[in-house]
Amino acid sequence: MSDRIKIEDGKLIVPDKPTIPFIEGDGIGKDITGPSQRVIDAAVKKAYGATRQLMWKEVLAGEKAYKETGNYLPEETLDAFKEYLIGIKGPLQTPVGEGIRSLNVALRQTLDLYVCLRPVRWFKGVPSPIRYPSLVDMHIFRENTEDIYAGIEYQVGDEKNKKFRDFLINEMGVDKIRFPESSSFGVKPISKDGSERLTKAAIEYAVQRNLPSVTIVHKGNIMKYTEGAFKNWSYDLAETEFGEQTFTWRQYENLKKDKGQLDADKALEEAKSAGKVIVKDCITDAFLQESLLHPWDHSVIATMNLNGDYISDQLAAMVGGIGISPGANINYNSGYAIFEATHGTAPNIAGTGKANPGSLILSGVMMLEYLGWDEAAEHVYDALEHVFAKRKVTSDLHAQMEGATLLSTSEFADEIIKNIH
Ligand code: NAI
Fold it and tell me: Tens digits of per-residue pLDDT, 221-231?
């Protein structure tokens, strides 16, 4: 008997055989979904025998949905994610000219999945462009519902663009638009509510996992009332709601001003030895450099939508690329979560057996951790480490690894299963 996952008083109630809706996805989605499910199922079986099992339930989206129902994102699919709370998806092609900007964005908006979580860790043997990849253990919390992604844009030449421009110039007294006649405009909403719920999730994650720091990444030096406000609201929240568990750089700076450097340094050292999470901030451009040079200084990263987009890809490239970078979109209040491969549909290799299923497999592992099935998750991490150590990889990594054995998508999945001990 399968069953539904529920949330009560903020805690997930997970039955032994929960129904998990999944979207196969377009392009390489077909190639990676089956093999990924086989790996996850094998790990669950190894960890819990017949006691626990994921009951996969296919729901339609993308090309497959369009062919079968005439709709890229049928209402039943959204209903299934609402009913079963937690699901997983392969990549979806963005339909051209169909009135929906992106199916992924539609799913995130409908379920208000405000955190995009991307853990970044390195597996021994995987090629990396940085010097000490083994010291990379970062967790990106990207805000998923606000910022320039809200889609409020006015194209040059449009009637609304003229109205907006005239409003800015005539009503708001704006005189800094360099070329008003030929400018398009975009609006960047960043709210206190949105910033606080994102940072709260990031700090709670750090506290629960005993991670040493949260870095607030922002461009507040330029965008004071949006990105700068994000930084301030995040510090406020850390100090008021997590006063016992955190120590912030702002507190450090204030202490330094009031009592001097020695006292501030002492307070920081005491906070570290007490196991408090150090909450700091970094300007985005400096962070892109910092994360390459000193990745070990940054554990959890809390940032807004656009910064998070750039940072996610850079950090993924540091540990082997999008083929093995997992992700999840989560609403920690309602419990809704969709785990997903972070790459696209890769039409250039679809159906060839070249796709790396790693990203979707690791997204499945994140899902196991979210369910609290940590033993099964550990089995997959462990098996993947063995497979990479033996240099058995798919074509994306094969080209960069000397003496590696080339495996197809499904052979790679089989190899992982063989190594689940
Ligand atoms: P892409 O991620 O599909 O491909 C970029 C490059 O990475 C290609 O060379 C591809 O072969 C390679 N690649 C991607 N995943 C791989 C894997 N698992 N193993 C080995 N190689 C892999 O990005 P692109 O080409 O910009 O987008 C194609 C389509 O995917 C578009 O329609 C786009 O909108 C959609 N897309 C969907 C996403 C999602 O569903 N979350 C995310 C990104 C793009």
Answer: 999 999 999 99
